[in-house]
Design a protein that fits this description.
It is a single chain. The chain has about 325 residues and is an alpha/beta fold. The chain has one domain: Rossmann fold (3-Layer(aba) Sandwich). The chain is about 40% helix and about 15% strand. Helix 3 crosses helix 5 and helix 8 runs parallel beside helix 13.
Length: about 325
């Protein structure tokens, strides 16, 4: 394994917030690898019908075949296959462990084996693909905390925030998942979405490490992608001229090899970035009121307008 610290860009936030799109876009940079939601690697690598974002069966994809072969040479690999142990401390229901300093210290001790296994995965990806930066959009607050506090990684956190009402509206949509036959993305009720959204914002409290944490709003990213990419590249120490090129709010996506995430990871070719604000006209008044009531303190903190007229309060943008 390599001795130099790998640079890892951890994209954290709530589901349906644009994390997969940002992951895919950053992966267009030479030397960067778009991994998608790598937290699920141990599970999806065992599914025979699972597709890589390149369109090939995951087990037949040249990238992941090489990674799996490299991992099988690691004695630690077998314990992470199929027993669910890797998820023990990485779910939102375990977020309570991180409330106190003592709890956080204990969490880092308990989850240390998972951190080591993840580093093995990262290093296998880097070696097989000759890359120096891996983008991981797993979103788990606990996992982001763990990996951002791991001394063996050069880790950076992008905290991607989207209006909670837009997230809740999106979470009610039934969207197909091309990763597997007859598969659909998970849906949530408005109250369930609001709860997940609030808990996912704890990343700002737990992972706000000086010069290694960046708050980014989905709406700002979609409307001014080049400006936000400059901010990201400045934070991670990459020359800004190497950022993916954006022309007339259009990006060109080449094939990536992400393993899990939103269905848009399969997109290739020119993609025009458009703000998905259908919720403003189509979301029911009841659902809007419920989500706003549950999340309004953080909505206001992030600069979102609480009225029905618009999602953004541009006078109070938070970066």
């Amino acid at each position: 394994m390599t001795t130099k610290k790998l640079r890892i860009v951890l994209i954290s936030g709530c589901i349906r917030s644009g994390t997969t799109l940002l992951d895919n876009l950053l992966g267009q940079t030479p030397g960067f690898f778009s991994g998608g939601e790598l937290v699920d690697f141990w599970q999806v690598a065992q599914l025979p019908e699972r597709l890589c974002a390149c369109g090939t069966l995951l087990r037949e994809c040249r990238v992941w075949k090489g990674v799996l072969q490299a991992l099988h040479r690691e004695p630690r690999f077998s314990r992470w296959q199929g027993d669910g142990h890797q998820y023990q401390y990485l779910r939102l229901r375990h977020l309570w462990r991180l409330i106190t300093p003592t709890g956080r210290e204990r969490f880092l001790q308990l989850a240390a084996p998972y951190a080591r296994a993840t580093i093995d995965l990262y290093e296998a990806i880097a070696q097989e693909n000759n890359v120096h930066t891996i983008v991981d959009s797993s979103k788990s607050v606990e996992r982001t905390y763990l990996l951002s506090h791991t001394q063996d990684l050069d880790a950076y956190v992008i905290h991607l925030v989207r209006d909670a009402r837009a997230v809740a509206f999106s979470c009610r949509r039934k969207k197909s998942d091309p990763s597997a036959p007859n598969s659909y993305m998970q849906t949530y009720s408005p109250a369930g979405s609001a709860l997940r959204w609030m808990l996912s914002q704890q990343v700002s409290r737990l992972c706000n490490i000086s010069d290694r944490y960046l708050l980014l709003r989905y709406e700002d990213f979609i409307t001014a992608p080049d400006q936000e990419l400059r901010r990201i590249f400045a934070m991670i120490g990459e020359p800004t001229e190497r950022r993916p090129k954006v022309s007339d709010n259009t990006i060109r996506l080449e094939r990536v090899h992400s393993i899990n995430g939103n269905a848009n990871r399969f997109k290739q070719g020119p993609v025009r970035l458009r703000l998905d604000d259908e919720w403003q006209s189509q979301m029911s008044a009841r659902d809007r009121a419920l989500v706003t009531t549950l999340t309004w303190p953080l909505l206001k903190h992030y600069g979102y307008d609480l009225s029905r007229k618009t999602s953004l309060n541009t006078a109070e943008m938070v970066h």
